[in-house]
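Batch 3, record 17
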Amino acid sequence: EAGVVQSPRYKIIEKKQPVAFWCNPISGHNTLYWYLQNLGQGPELLIRYENEEAVDDSQLPKDRFSAERLKGVDSTLKIQPAELGDSAVYLCASSFEGYEQFFGPGTRLTVL
Amino acid sequence: TQLLEQSPQFLSIQEGENLTVYCNSSSVFSSLQWYRQEPGEGPVLLVTVVTGGEVKKLKRLTFQFGDARKDSSLHITAAQTGDTGLYLCAGAEGGGADGLTFGKGTHLIIQP
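Prediction for the assembled complex:
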């Protein structure tokens, strides 16, 4: 069974530029999560989807961050414009009915 | 917001020694998960504990959930160099598909 797929694995951009991350969850998993992980820290939840509905986006900085999961399968997380403090690893995870979450390898973003 | 405190933050021991990592909170969690993360990769789920007082074993790793479901421990017997990594505990506040609250992790280095 294929795991959670994320792309790109690495991204380097200049500040004020836009950036997008893509995630394809494990087949059949209805719940999808985006987490942010700063260096030396544990992941922090940004947004959770149940199928195509964002059911928890309370920690998503909505002034510059947006996300979508149009068909309830893969998802895109966007930052526009990026700031220096956005440099981090962005992790996607999925679960079936929420019992156990499985993570992708993450996208490491560097903002210069 | 529920917080998870992990200790120690860093641990370096010799191969063959035993160790215990702790995860503590003042709040009750419906379930608690332990993950292991290697550099450049996403967290990999090791175990989920749900019942207060529960003990689960995974080869040389023993996981325990506190009776009050506020704390957990991970004990490794006869550590091997392959056990090196970042160990994260994560708690779910409610049932179902809630996002996880992660601790900051324990950086474990097993020296040959």
